[in-house]
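Q: What does the assembled structure look like for these inputs?
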Amino acid sequence: MDTASRDDFVIAIRSAFLKKGNKQRFSLIFLIFLSLAFLFLGRINFEPINQVKIVIREAVYRSSFIVSVPENYLKKTYQKIQSHFVIYNDYFEIKSEIEKLNSEKTVDQFIIEENKRLKKIIDDYVAESEEVVAKIIIDKNSPFLRSLIVNKGSKNNIKLGMAVLDKNYLIGKVVEVNYLTSRVLLLSDLNSKIPVIIEPGGFQSILSGTGKNDGIIQYLKENYLIEGKNTVYTSGAGGLFKAGIPIGKIKKNQLDEPNKVNFFSDFSQLRFVKVKSFEKEESN
Amino acid sequence: MVEFSKITISNKLLRYAPILLLFISVLNEFDFNYLELKYFSFNFPFVLIFYWSLKKPESLGYGFIFIAGLINDVVVGFPMGISSLVYLFICGSAAYFRNITLNTSLFKDWIFFLATILVVNTMLYSILVLFFSFNLNYNDLIVNLIFTFLLYVICANLFELYEKLVFGNQNV
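A:
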């Protein structure tokens, strides 16, 4: 009885995986091995597979952009309707904020110039490369990965690790460069780790993504007093980004809560981004 | 003559609709993420592949499923080959289930679908975490699994209706 049921199991498995079905050109087991080969060769960075990957990526990104047009239209309509509901309330708040900012701007300009002068003296001044403005062609937030695809690649001098900004706010870095497209890993991704400084206080730390729409401050001793609404900037440690690019604000109501970061930029509303690199300015 | 060719083209489109839908869904990743619902995500290709591999395997070629997996990896940013592997395992599981059952019912299919996605998601999670050092949120994966499981009933009913309309009673 047992042998019979085991035989049935083996026959069913063999038929499912080894037999080519009606109108099927390949057997399942052949394609499973092909997928494993792709995975394994990709893991060991086998060059021909990397070339194949780049070709597939270029083709897929372009087709995905076209296929996404109807859904993007729906998405934009939904967001437009949603934003209409909040515009009126925001208007008065923004108006008073603009007045306040205008008065602060004059003072800030003086501080910026002074800061540049002082940084040059201590040889810490970094120059920005020419920025490349890129259009987002795919911004599918998968439940597991937070990244987007932009329409500029190695043809436009995009390099791995370049900073990606929305206005003046850091939103991520380039993690994959193809000839005409690149992938940007957003700060909210679980795999994103950026050295940051928290002001006021000057606490150095690492900002990690949470996989949601915010970030979290990691590796910070508990006795540092960080209150809600502290601002997070890049620290410049590691030399990848210049120091002082604004990222977001700490959000917490009680001191013992984890230090979550609300990004200044809304990653779901991005259409164009700036891609830049930062280099140390040659001293004269 | 013109009328005849029109009928043939639309007929072919209807017959190949499952594979077209699969390609659109992997290129488009339509999962309503833009609604920004905190605990809501699903994997539509899992439902589509399992249902059609179970009910009408010839409507989704294994080769096409393999390519769809590669496309999905590129769009989502996973290592290439992993989605193909997972999709093909779903096909294999559906084919095995088809071989061992004589009397099918939606409930049985549904339960077997749950077992299948549990296994393939475990496989996906393990490969990504162990071999590719990916950080994945386990809760997100569970939420995705639950909604994919719940979605199966709705989609299965819709697909069944479509199957009856397009293919009639042949092979049902």
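The two ends of chain B are 31 Å apart (CA to CA).
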